[in-house]
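Illustration: NAD-dependent epimerase/dehydratase family protein.
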Amino acid sequence: MKKVLVTGAYGFLGRNVAKEFKTAGSYVVGIGHGKWYKDEYAKWGIDEWNETTITFEALLNINKKFDVIVHCGGSGSVGFSYENPYEDFQKSVQSTLSLLEYIRLQNANCKFIYPSSPAVQGNLGDAPILEDMGAIPVSPYGFHKKIAEELCHSYHNSFNIDVGIVRYFSIYGEGLKKQLLWDACRKIKEADNVTFFGTGKETRDWIHVSDAASLLRIFSENIKGFEIVNCGSGVSTEIEKVIALISKYFERDIKVDFNGVVKEGDPIYFWADVNKAMAYGWKPMVELERGLENYVKFFKTLYK
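Result:
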């Protein structure tokens, strides 16, 4: 049976990734922060849970050999990286280094999968983003992710570790309680007039968390060497359309305004070219409208 370590398994992406690997027949160990009892983490396919900071010493204490390590732990917010750049660096870069060093010294045949972000490429305009397009990050979050990616490349080149990097675009889905969709649901539920940042013409490429997890597993089974793939739907959607769909599923006629202010570090356009990912036999299954409808249903169950 394949043994898989998922860091940050308490988080939104991490727990879905753990469940994906468990469903495929793996033995799944989780590590990270979060108070979790066995009956709770077992529901997400986790066989063992280790509540601890991701360090080399903590990995030694687990005392297992893994076939795959998936690093879902770390920073996940541009805003947080501006407010706490040092801590963001520790979460993104130091934890990645600890895992790579653990593989080098203790688990040489283990594959390393790193969920990253197109934030490493910065602003590239209103066109599909290819994995090899070079650019400059525009936020501490993007710079730290880029450094972590370069560490991955270094360890592959120097120590022959198989590394796969998945650059995720806008992941969403039932269970997510932060970011734009959560904020929009809260505002639309409570008011007839709502205001959002930006112009509404900014675009994002939305990918449901179930599709995000399935690509990561498929990628991990096929990666040899060093490879980077995008994970998105391949569809560019304006923010104002997303807000309109959420309003529709709330069955509310509301007035929506945009204040024209773009948050520091936020890109104007994000749109993935997913041809490389699809060459692995993967394709996104959840269309945005159905995914948003299910997300609103999830939100409503929390406020009955």
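Reading the tokens back as a structure: The CA atoms of residues 174 and 295 lie 5 Å apart.
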